[in-house]
Amino acid sequence: MKIILFALLVSSSIFSIAQEEKKTFKNDIAVSGGLSIANQPFGRYGLTFRSNITNAWKLKFSASYDKFYSHYSPYVPIFSSDTLIILREQNSYNNRFSTRIGVDRTLFKVLFVGADINLGYSFERVFTFEQGLEYDDYDQTWTNCMDCLAEFHNVPPVQHIEVDHSQLPNQVLVSRNEGSEYFVYGLSLNAGVNFPIGNRWGLALQYLPEISRYQSLNGGSSFIQFRHYIDLILRFKI
Q1: pLDDT (tens digit, 9 = 90+) per residue, 116-174?
Q2: Residue 221 above 70 pLDDT?
Q3: Residue 90 and residue 138: Cα distance in Å, rounded?
Q4: Do residues 72 and 63 touch, judged by C-beta distance below 8 A?
């Protein structure tokens, strides 16, 4: 009796697997992670839902979180003499939340191209760092000098200059803005290749160029940015 029940269970499992392999799924969900092909480090993470319009066309909705860091200007001298050099660097930290709606078209079963309209919100904060170098006549070398920064700005360092210990040694944080907010909108294209894994899972690699306008929400300047991304996508059909 046990043997018969076991045989029925195995047969049922094999039949279910065979049925699933034949089943056609009309939707899929995906998680993605990507990098920007640019000078600044960039990380992007996203979630996408796609639904079949036809066998070749898919309607897609997605949301993503982007975070990047960039140099406004590397260390450049803002004051220089025979005995003193003051260097300044400005760094930008940006977070962006985006929603997208668009379409994908499948080509030759494994290739795909698409386009999206993007809407989002971005928050940017700029930090200004300075470093002082004083010439040592005895050793005939340039050495780091914290007090030189205070003397250069003519303010007590305890009250007006904050040392940021998370940064490199001898680097002093002299200012940071309260943050700039932007409404972001734009257009992106994409092209990629699918790598099926069984009947329901799949990987995809895509290239995505994007042009976006950053419209200031707090009276600052607005600007346009153009970026390129490479995304790795994990999909599951539902």
Answers
A1: 999 999 998 888 888 888 888 888 888 888 778 777 776 544 333 343 434 444 566 66
A2: yes
A3: 33
A4: no
- Residue 71: φ, ψ to 5°: -90, 120
Nearest-CA neighbor of 114 among 185, 42, 207, 52? 207
Environment class of 130 (CB within 10 Å of its CB; exposed 0-12, middle 13-18, buried 19+): buried
Q: Take residue 89 and report the two structure tokens written for it.
A: 């660097």
Tens-digit pLDDT profile for residues 16-55:
444 445 578 999 999 999 888 775 567 889 999 999 999 8
What are residue 217's phi and psi, to 5 degrees?
-105, -5
Domains of the chain and any CATH numbers? 2-237 (2.40.160.20)
Q: What is the rounded distance in angstroms from the CA atom of residue 160 to the CA atom of residue 174? A: 8
- As a whole number of angstroms, the distance between CA 144 and CA 160 comes to 19
Which residue intervals of 102-162 are DSSP H helices? Answer: 146-153, 157-160
204, 29 in Cβ contact below 8 A? Answer: no
Q: What is the pTM (predicted TM-score) of this model?
A: 0.71
Inter-residue contact 123 to 181 (CB < 8 Å): yes
| CB of 122 closer than 8 Å to CB of 184 | yes
DSSP string, 13-69: HHHHHHHHHHPPP-EEEEEEEEEESSSS-EEEEEEEEEEESSSSEEEEEEEEEEEEE
Beta pairing, strands 201-216 & 42-52: unpaired
CB atoms within 10 A of CB 100: 21
Question: Which pair of structure tokens corresponds to residue 165?
Answer: 């210990």
